[in-house]
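User: For documentation purposes, I need each entry recorded in a consistent format: the amino acid sequence on its own, followed directly by the corresponding structure tokens. There are two entries in this batch. Please keep commentary to a minimum and don't merge the entries.

Assistant: Recorded as requested. Entry 1:
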Amino acid sequence: MALPTKEQVIEALKPVQDPEIRIGIIDLGLVYDVLLEEDTSKVTVKMTLTTPACPYGEMLVSMTHRAVEELDGVEDVEVVLVWSPPWDPNEMCSDQAKDVLGIW
């Protein structure tokens, strides 16, 4: 079975919300990249957190992992936390998330 597309992985991640602010990780701009390895059926998600000291970091990583592993064709999932570039809500959030956060 073929791996899902990058767009399908991103779509699967849309319901994953930061538990503290109740906004999806895609709208927050926390997902930096999705890498697909067809030969090993592996999906790697590169993401960050709103802050390195985020109390929900482990939970967000787990929820991200679970959302991707449930997709057909995925045999292995890796979620990699990255800190560069640092998360900036002014630059990385969707317009909808900026509205909720009061950023304008």
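Entry 2:
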Amino acid sequence: MAELLTFPPLTTFRDPAGSVELRSDGAYRSIHAPFDQDILAFLATPLANELVAQGRLVASEIVSPAGAETLVLRHPRISFQSFPWEWSPALWLAAAELTLNLCSELLQQGWILKDATPLNVLFQGARPIFVDVLSIERADPNRPIWIAYGQFVRTFLLPMLAHSRLGWPLQAAIIRRDGYEPEDIYAALPLVARLQQPALSAVTLPSVLAGSKKLKGGTIATRSVEPELARHILQKTFKNLLLQMRKVTPAQRSSTWSDYAHTATHYDEDDHKRKRGFVTRALLNARPTHVLDVGSNTGVYSNLAADAGAEVVSIDTDLQAIDRLCSSAKETGKNILPLCVDLSHPTPAAGWENRENASFLSRCTGHFDTVLMLAVLHHLLLRSQIPMGRIASLCSTLTTRHLILEWVPPTDTMFQELVRGRDAIYAHITEDLFRESFSRYFVIVDELRLANHRIMLHLEKK
């Protein structure tokens, strides 16, 4: 569907030292002189090779010919690009930990990060990878101040503090590319919260002192110190920021849907077993490489897809369910990337000309060979009021081949709960309409009717 496609993403342009262009075979980074010499020197170090081998730093291949005016590096494309406004707290914390630990290790070898934003991190499954090698520069041995300190606070610490203390959504990062200023948070925090750490040092004191800084020209003098002392101060800075970030990241909580897999009463034990068996068999037959699990909840079926050898992107609207799945994926090491995305209102394109950050649907186009939509269809039909034909059409663009779907009939208790007495409005939603709509794009490979009258279908694209 043409309307799902966006313009090609822009070549990055914000860093005067270089730019990145995304191509089908990789991300190509152009680096201008004199910054190229430092990058080449760093890439030649054992530390760079070690970080790449650990999967914490993106690999770099030199592709520009010798003597070229501009250094060009090729980085492998991360399987599925995600953005901070799609992350749960667990992914935000993982990205922050990678950034600060990377800084600490770089400093020991005479290097440091000049930038500290979540946008420098992508995920392979739930494992963070630092992708902006141009952020790495030689450290000034006499400088005890981290130049990216303020950016880390604005883009990592303050968004998480606002989320945990004020309930501000992390998704707001899409319109706050450079994060929050301390004054933004200070005005909203209650008095008691302003005096508690880390708000006291990250929000209250900067807000109170902001006026005096402006009187002095808005800058703070940096005094040179002995290299050993400078390193000690910087390492303490990284450690303190890490402790603060962990402190403000909220603990996982239960929500309406985060315990759904264990509390659902509309499946008996035999139905649960038959449903899992059907999905397992369908995955075995499909032999997927890339799976999108829509309405994944805490990931029961995402795990089945990962066990079948697929790379899985799991999306759900419930932040707590996604956060639990993220923690589970980190523990097991399974290739599952959990994202907080609403398919009925998916992440839009963002940034300059709406082309810096691709929309969720454009990132999906052509990527997934299998889509799971289990106990989701009735939510789209009733809660989001998306017509059946539109859903079937979207499904045909999300998958290149397979769709594993669950039909929930109008007699189902969960269907009736969403209808809320509006039966006449939704009387047209029938099994016949369902089959007719999806038959325009798919053929049935396998089908199973459960005792609760829900129908499991394995469909293949025409």
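Summary note for entry 2:
Residues 1-6 have pLDDT under 50 and may be disordered.
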